[in-house]
Design a protein that fits this description.
By secondary structure, this protein is of the alpha+beta class. It has one domain: Porin (Beta Barrel). Helix content is 17%, strand content 55%. The protein is built from four helices and eleven strands; from the N terminus they run αβαβββββααβββββ.
């Protein structure tokens, strides 16, 4: 976390110095567009939430991320005689994760999380070369499916139906709003087509653990997201004013 904050400070400082010494364009103008692409996400430290190290031993966890669709709408405002731009976006994305559990008693289960989000981004962008830019900014994601948790196992004969355990887990593990910091880079053509790559570092806990009989503990579970999108917008030569 400290390294990410330090990187953001360095980026903002370098952007400001560059903006003062290099000018591009002669007019302010507004750009609006649409984008779509793919994302890969993971949620950290789920195993620590489900099983306390002091509770018992003889188990293993395997954690893997999930690929999904993302898409949204955006506006991009470039400032007069500057490389700087203000960027705002509303988008859909899914935060997903699959956690596989196995133990010495031959119990195995998969805990899959599928949280759908509507996100709002506010970014600072700097056009350092013709068409190429880098950007940085915060994201807030509103969870549309806080109960998006799915449980399957080989232990129904002993522990009861998976659907019942799934519902009990949904009652105590609730998806939350996601706050993240984003870093990105991309390229825009003169006719409005753009490709964009971003990494989001979650700074909030995306799962709330309520009082329960499972021995689940409250633990910070953050998001990590990589996204690649293609967008199209009104060409830059169409000046807003």
């Amino acid at each position: 976390m400290k390294r990410a904050v330090s990187l953001l400070i360095v980026l903002f400082a370098s952007f400001s110095l560059t903006a003062q010494t290099k000018a591009k364009g002669n007019d302010n103008f507004l750009q609006a567009g649409i984008k779509a692409g793919a994302g890969y996400s993971v949620i950290t430290d789920l195993s620590k939430m489900l099983v306390s190290e002091s509770y018992y031993t003889g188990y293993t966890f395997t954690n893997k991320g999930v690929a999904s669709f993302t898409g949204g709408l955006y506006i991009n405002y470039k400032f007069k005689e500057s490389i700087s731009a203000f960027y705002a976006e509303v988008s859909y994305s899914r935060l997903g994760n699959i956690l596989h559990y196995s133990d010495i008693n031959n119990l195995e289960y998969d805990l899959e999380i599928k949280y759908d989000y509507i996100n709002i981004d506010f970014w600072y962008k700097a056009y350092l070369l013709q068409g190429f830019y880098i950007g940085v900014g915060p994201r807030i994601g509103f969870n549309l499916t806080p109960g998006g948790l799915f449980y399957t196992s080989n232990g129904e004969a002993i522990y009861g139906p998976d659907i019942r355990i799934q519902q009990q887990m949904r009652d105590v593990l609730k998806g939350r709003t996601n706050f993240a910091l984003g870093l990105g880079l991309g390229y825009e053509t003169s006719f409005g087509l753009a490709i964009d790559a971003r990494y989001y570092f979650g700074i909030s806990d995306v799962i709330e653990t309520e009082v329960n009989n499972f021995h689940f503990i409250e633990n910070k579970n953050s998001s990590r997201v990589l996204q690649i999108t293609i967008g199209y917008s009104i060409p830059y030569n169409m000046k807003f004013f």
